[in-house]
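Hey,
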Amino acid sequence: MIQELSCIEGCEVIPAQNEELLIIVTDTSNNQEEEILKSRLDAISSLKLLTMVSGFETPKEKN
């Protein structure tokens, strides 16, 4: 599964020390890329559970 996930553009795979968990860091530029990436991840049959957390930077307001 690590190799399959690593082949997806925009994915970085970080195995946990117990080897029962993978952390996947993704980077997309827009919603369309995000949906394509999610579809590719959903298509991996050996993936049992996928939890996604979104993080983004918001511009600071100028006073």
